[in-house]
Amino acid sequence: MSEFLSKLEYLQFPFVRYALIVGVLIALCSSLLGVPLVLKRFSFIGDGLSHVAFGAMAIAAVLGLTNDMPLILVITIASAILLLRTGQNAKIKGDAAVAMISVGALAIGYLLMNLFNHSSNLSGDVCSTLFGSTSILTLTKGEVWLCLILSVLVVAVFVLFYDKIFAVTFDESFARATGTKAGLYNLLIAIITAVIIVLAMNLVGSLLISALVIFPALSAMRVFKSFRGVVICSAVLSVLCSLVGMLISILAGTPVGSTIVAVDIAAFGVFSLIGFLKGNLK
Amino acid sequence: MAQLTCQNLCLGYDGREIIHDLSFQVEAGNYLCILGENGSGKSTLMRTILGLQAPLSGKVLTGDGLLPQEIGYLPQQTLVQRDFPASVWEIVLSGCQNRQGFRPFYSRDEKEQARAMIDKLELTPLMKRCYRELSGGQQQRVLLARALCATRKMLLLDEPVSGLDPKVTQEMYAIIRKLNREEGITILMISHDLHAAVEDATHILHIGHTVFFGTKEEYLKSDAVLAFAPGGADK
Ligand SMILES: Nc1ncnc2c1ncn2[C@@H]1O[C@H](COP(=O)(O)OP(=O)(O)OP(=O)(O)O)[C@@H](O)[C@H]1O
Ligand SMILES: [Mg+2]
């Protein structure tokens, strides 16, 4: 018990508080976006876009850019738009297109790094895109603020455009046919998705961001049957899971990203069970 | 100018032509029934009119200041994923989306209208239910209610009564008739039900082997009616 209390004193350290804040914010944003993304069959977009960002990083390294953020953002947003906009009419459907871009970007990025980058720590670079280049425990105040501002923006956009996001997710051709600017709203979803993914990839890594996009939405869908119910449940669940995951990782000294994912998986199990019982008891 | 004009439309997929050189006009307040065999291109024509797919050649023009935001649409099939979480209420309300513009959230008026459509189509007991757990006919009624919410000047219906029981079918026709006669809403309806078509429609478009466009009276006197239903519309 006393050991537990002494570990809780970690909360006094600013870097621990920063990690908690950023973790919760990213969990919130990605779970909100996760619902339409999963429903549009774009579960793997987190993975795909973070690989694109990795490819962009390689290009920036080859070009010798010191500040690679703008280039990464531009390329990632462009790919997100390409993927999400072509949507329903595309010859290559959602999941296949994401897989193609994802694997392609990863391969090209790795190739470029191999050809032009003579740093010895190549596998380290690759590994850091998977698990986060800045460890979530070494965040600076500036990064926390950036994350805070972008999260507020994403949540605001999501709430203000909630009805439109539902309309274009549920039935894009009806929305288009009856004069809703479906293209514009798809573009909006694509842009905020890309922004969140680039942000989160640097902070928590692409493994975690995929999990944060997929798991809360899928868990909520086991139990809730309305769009609103799923969105709210998914957001609450995601925030709780990431908090619990981070606390466990601090107390038990386990890696942050994988611990959060493990908690998300456990929650998915519980929700599946609830959904199953609910269906059978009716 | 007519509310809707189709000029020398050629429709098809991947360069293969299904409809060749089709021209017709729809005036405000008309009730046009589109007839034709399976695969003759009726749904394709409707999607082209709505701008969901491009014609191979030709033009679709709108007049009378008709905006896309004033059109309601009932698709023949809606490929909703099996696990999509959406309640009946959310779907019907989403029909009001097109008048929202950039304003967030639905107004009280819009909610009341959605409520009224739900009552009209006897969906009230199902309001909180999940769409994917409804029967085929119930789903059709939900989508009809959504289409009615979106309609202000023109309503396009692709086989609206398929899957409905006889009672609801009659009510459906009555609702459409009332919209057309009392509120002056233009109706374009694809149907295989010649009787109903002949009863309410003002104009008929028949596509397929024989192409015909004209008023109902002209259609009943023409040969096209024989091609579609051997024995005619016995009326
Ligand atoms: N996405 C598509 N790609 C290629 N061909 C298509 C496509 N959709 C329809 N077709 C073809 O176009 C033709 C017309 O199809 P359409 O759906 O418009 O027929 P329809 O008149 O609505 O038939 P029904 O009475 O069965 O609803 C058919 O021969 C069909 O094979
Ligand atoms: Mg059809």
Which helices and strands occur, and which strands form pairs?
The complex is a heterodimer of chains A (282) and B (235).
Chain A: H1 2-8, H2 14-39, H3 45-63, H4 69-86, H5 94-116, H6 122-131, H7 141-160, H8 162-170, H9 172-177, H10 182-204, H11 206-223, H12 227-252, H13 256-281
Chain B: E1 4-13, E2 16-26, E3 31-36, H1 42-49, E4 57-62, E5 71-74, H2 88-93, H3 108-120, H4 136-150, E6 154-158, H5 166-182, E7 186-190, H6 194-200, E8 203-207, E9 212-215, H7 216-221, H8 224-228
Parallel strand pairs in B: 3-7, 3-8, 5-6, 6-7
Antiparallel strand pairs in B: 1-2, 1-4, 8-9
Helix pairs in contact in B: 3-4
Bound molecules: adenosine-5'-triphosphate (ATP) and magnesium ion (MG).
3D structure, described in words:
The complex is a heterodimer of chains A (282) and B (235). The model of chain A has no long low-confidence stretch (mean pLDDT 83). The termini of chain A are far apart. By secondary structure, chain A is mainly alpha-helical. Chain A has helices at 2-8, 14-39, 45-63, 69-86, 94-116, 122-131, 141-160, 162-170, 172-177, 182-204, 206-223, 227-252, 256-281. Chain A has one domain: Orthogonal Bundle (ABC transporter involved in vitamin B12 uptake, BtuC). The longest helix of chain A has 26 residues, at 14-39. Chain B has 235 residues and is α/β, with parallel strands linked by helices. Chain B has a domain at 80-152. Chain B has eight helices and nine strands. Chain B has helices at 42-49, 88-93, 108-120, 136-150, 166-182, 194-200, 216-221, 224-228; strands at residues 4-13, 16-26, 31-36, 57-62, 71-74, 154-158, 186-190, 203-207, 212-215. In chain B, the strands form two sheets. Chain B has a six-stranded mixed β-sheet, sandwiched between helices. In chain B, strand 1 (4-13) and strand 2 (16-26) form a beta hairpin. In chain B, helix 3 (108-120) packs antiparallel against helix 4 (136-150). Residues 231-235 of chain B have low confidence and may be disordered. The A-B interface holds A 39, 41, 159-164, 166-167, 170-171, 173-180, 220-221, 224-230 and B 47, 50-52, 67-73, 75, 78, 80-81, 83-87, 89-91, 93-95, 97-98, 100, 104-106, 128-130, 133, 146, 150, 156. The complex binds adenosine-5'-triphosphate and magnesium ion. Adenosine-5'-triphosphate is lined by residues 13, 18, 36, 38-44, 76 of chain B.
